[in-house]
Design brief:
The complex is a heterodimer of chains A (320) and B (175). Chain A is of the alpha/beta class and 320 residues long. Chain A has 11 helices and 12 strands. In chain A, a hairpin with a 4-residue loop joins strand 2 and strand 3. The longest helix of chain B is centred in the middle third of the chain and has 33 residues. The chains are: A alpha/beta (320), B mainly alpha (175).
Chain lengths: 320, 175
């Protein structure tokens, strides 16, 4: 090939394509017509073909000395680790506003109210965790949640992954709170007693404030010692009120704030197997930390409690 | 999560992606790391992959991107390394005859590939070793099909020139 001849320079790309077997028929015949008359380009085509032959050998040759089996084993181990850490999430609309639902391979690990600034709060919620969005995979959680929020079910029987809990203490608080039945409320002090730390009321409130899975673990059923709703997920006490109302818990307004109406609820002393009228014996004077309140007889009975044999809530039910 | 679907992706493509990376990085340890990273990234992202997507092309794209990032970071070190190699004595096998020409030439090709600019090296390896089409290569490298073809062409031209020193057996062009 003459490096200076424009025709030869022009045809080089096509010549390479012909050598590689990639040229269209028209291009190939043009190249062949050229090389028939041009000895240097003929030689060039031969060399490019020789290169292609060597490349074919290279393709067959084993990869540069590496142990791909070992690399694969290491990959498997890192993948397993990633699978344990990775959570998939979806953002959905709900009567409580936009909500983020996330699960790991172990179970549901995050339920997060996003509020109005949902992009920023979503970013904040997911910082420090390995998360990928997958609405398809999290949609079943959303369906369950909607069934719950619209009153078609009273339990979210989700396996939970509490690894996002901040401490062992918080995990214990969450576990006890998870046992509070639908339509029942207890106080922060009551939960503190249940975990064997009766003076840790404030710590319990903090632990519940950072509940990674609200609703699934019903921290909205935990209230202040006076019956005040106090707080919920930071400053979302209106959502707490909404959720309790959904469950039939009786609320009244006192000094501008909602408060659970003790006098309208059935009572059970922690660990007792019976439920009573709020006026039974000395119950009305007991601290909220010692009792659990139930919105209705059905709710008390649904967790296996029997009506008290002295006050007979079954014979003298509270007026709804 | 669809673990089995991803397991099938690993089984189907890990060896090839590893081979690709071993060739373009020319270092086994880098191929190990980069192929792991390729699949970890793929695992994080594959849920959002459309069902009809070409998984192989997608993995090559992830691997190529990682390579680009890797060499951007490594660029300075690598340039220094190359300079030292050029300055050092080159092994000269003289003028081998017959079959030895091919062996020598293959070794020479490896050397030339290693010295290619990164995009050419990636495009060339995807095309000539892994037989991907130009469109896929373009997508992997974030360039047009024409640029992908041009990268491969430039690489071939350099290889061809680099082999000038050797007595390449001539074959008459077939008609």
């Amino acid at each position: 090939m003459s490096r200076t001849h424009p025709a030869c320079r022009e045809i080089e790309t096509d010549l390479v394509a012909v050598a590689a077997g990639e040229a269209a028929a028209k291009t190939a015949s043009r190249v062949h017509a050229h090389v028939a008359l041009c000895a240097p380009c003929r030689g060039e085509l031969a060399r490019y073909r020789a290169v292609e032959t060597m490349l074919a050998e290279l393709r067959q040759a084993p990869a540069p000395a590496t142990d791909v089996t070992l690399a694969r084993a290491e990959l498997e181990s890192r993948l397993a680790d990633l699978r344990r850490r990775l959570i998939v999430f979806g953002v959905f609309s709900s009567p409580l506003g936009p909500i983020l639902l996330a699960r790991s391979e172990l179970g549901v690990s995050m339920v997060k109210y996003l509020g109005r600034a949902s992009a920023a709060s979503r970013f904040a919620a997911l910082s420090g965790v390995e998360a990928v969005e997958d609405e398809r995979e999290t949609e079943p959680l959303h369906r369950d949640l909607m069934d719950y929020l619209e009153g078609r079910r009273t339990r979210l029987d989700w396996p939970l992954d509490l690894r996002l809990a901040r401490s062992e203490f918080q995990r214990r608080v969450l576990q006890v709170t998870a046992g509070l039945p639908y339509g029942a409320v207890a106080s922060y002090g009551g939960i503190a007693r249940q975990i064997g730390a009766p003076t840790a009321t404030r710590a319990v409130a903090q632990a519940l404030r950072w509940n990674p899975v609200p609703i699934a673990i019903p921290c909205h059923r935990v209230i202040g010692s006076t019956g005040d709703l106090t707080g919920y997920a930071g400053n979302k006490v209106a959502l707490k009120e909404w959720l309790l109302t959904l469950e039939g818990v009786h609320l009244r307004v006192a000094r501008g704030a909602h408060r659970v109406d003790r006098r309208a609820m059935y009572v059970r002393l922690w660990d007792d197997t019976e439920y009573c009228l709020p006026t039974c014996g000395s119950l009305s004077r007991r601290s909220l930390a010692e009792i659990e309140l139930f919105a209705s007889r059905e709710r008390a009975q649904s967790v296996g409690l029997a009506p008290c044999t002295s006050c007979r809530p079954d014979l003298h039910p509270l007026l709804a | 999560m669809e673990e089995d679907a991803f397991e099938a992706i690993v089984t189907g493509h890990h060896a090839e992606i590893h081979r690709y990376l071993a060739r373009v990085t020319a270092r086994a340890s880098e191929a190990d790391d980069l192929s792991q990273e390729t699949f970890l990234r793929a695992y994080r992202a594959y849920r959002s992959l459309p069902p009809q997507a070409n998984v192989r092309a997608w993995l090559f794209a992830i691997a190529s991107n990682l390579c680009k990032n890797h060499f951007r970071a490594e660029g300075r070190r690598r340039r220094a390394h190359a300079a030292v190699q050029l300055a050092g004595p080159r092994v000269d096998h003289g003028w081998p005859e017959g079959e030895a020409v091919f062996t020598e030439a293959s070794a020479r090709i490896d050397g030339i590939i290693a010295d290619l600019p990164l995009k050419q090296r990636l495009a060339f390896t995807m095309r000539k070793i892994h037989d991907l089409d130009y469109e896929t290569i373009g997508e992997s490298l974030g360039c047009s099909l024409e640029s992908a073809r041009a990268h491969v062409f430039q690489a071939l031209r350099k290889i061809r020139r680099g082999l000038d020193a050797l007595a390449i057996p001539h074959m008459e062009p077939q008609r």
